[in-house]
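Example for tutorial group B:
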């Protein structure tokens, strides 16, 4: 776990600016998404500059939506100190909240610019999984979105360290604090119990999604199918990964919020995809 990658010293005033791993990887992911989307936009006959401008709106909307969803989901942790809700650099974004906010911003932008909405969203969806994969690397470095306790014999099991602040008070990592609160470790322990590296599971899952969508892109039969493919594949992957996570509370049905949302998104994606293909029956060209 490396929560702070490095610090930038500010001359003459004696302070440094920390560069947090989580925020840094979000930035890297954003740049990769825009770079890949610009290339795809050019091949699809759209102006790459429009994609760049759209990306700026979408990323801010996504961060805002993802953070709001996370805070609502973990409201007990913030109701006594609401200012902590703004500490995004400490991690804590829910993908589905960010996805919904990003899509809303894309729809508004394409309406204003009079761009083809479905084709534009497809281009973003084509590259989006790469950005999410980078974000999950940031989660791993930050220690958030941690997994459930597993056997220490699992070859890829990980343990996150106990960290202390300048006053030698324990301030992390998130998995260690979680285990400490549940009585699974003591203050004298140096690491959490072995857990599933769910951040890495998610990273690998999103990379797999990207290559599947890349192979499917030229076989789509109508605009919007790439986005539906992404939503369906991500929902399946996210539902499975949630089984191994330990940071999200279970609801009345024994599933997490993200698992419930995944079921709804998967059902909607399949239904819209099938309905769209039925309407295209007999046609052979992209509409």
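The residue assignment follows.
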């Amino acid at each position: 776990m490396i929560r702070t990658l490095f610090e930038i010293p500010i001359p003459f005033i004696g302070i440094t600016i920390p560069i947090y791993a989580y925020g840094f990887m979000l930035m890297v992911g954003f740049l990769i998404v825009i770079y890949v989307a610009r290339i795809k936009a050019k091949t699809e006959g759209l102006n790459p500059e429009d994609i760049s401008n759209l990306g700026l709106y979408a990323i801010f909307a996504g961060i805002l939506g993802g953070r709001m969803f996370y805070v609502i989901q973990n409201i007990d942790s913030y109701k006594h100190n609401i200012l902590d809700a703004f500490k995004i650099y400490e991690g804590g974004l829910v993908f589905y909240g960010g996805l919904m906010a990003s899509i809303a911003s894309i729809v508004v932008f394409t309406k204003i610019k009079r761009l083809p909405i479905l084709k534009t969203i497809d281009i973003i969806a084509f590259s989006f999984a790469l950005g999410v994969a980078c974000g999950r690397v940031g989660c791993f470095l930050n220690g958030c979105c941690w997994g459930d306790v597993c056997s220490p014999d699992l070859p890829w099991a990980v343990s996150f360290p106990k960290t202390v602040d300048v006053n030698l008070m324990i301030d992390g990592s998130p998995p260690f604090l979680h285990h400490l609160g549940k009585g699974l470790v003591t203050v004298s322990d140096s690491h959490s119990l072995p857990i599933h590296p769910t951040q890495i599971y998610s990273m690998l899952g999103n990379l797999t999604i990207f290559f599947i969508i890349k192979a499917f892109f030229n076989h789509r039969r109508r605009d919007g199918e790439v986005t539906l493919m992404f939503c369906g594949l991500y929902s399946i992957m996210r539902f499975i990964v949630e089984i191994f996570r330990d940071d999200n509370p279970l609801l009345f049905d024994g599933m997490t919020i993200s698992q419930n949302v995944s079921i709804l998104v998967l059902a909607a994606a399949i239904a819209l995809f099938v309905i769209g293909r039925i309407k295209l029956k007999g046609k052979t060209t992209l509409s």
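The chain has a mean pLDDT of 87. Compare this with the pattern of hydrophobic and polar residues in the output above.
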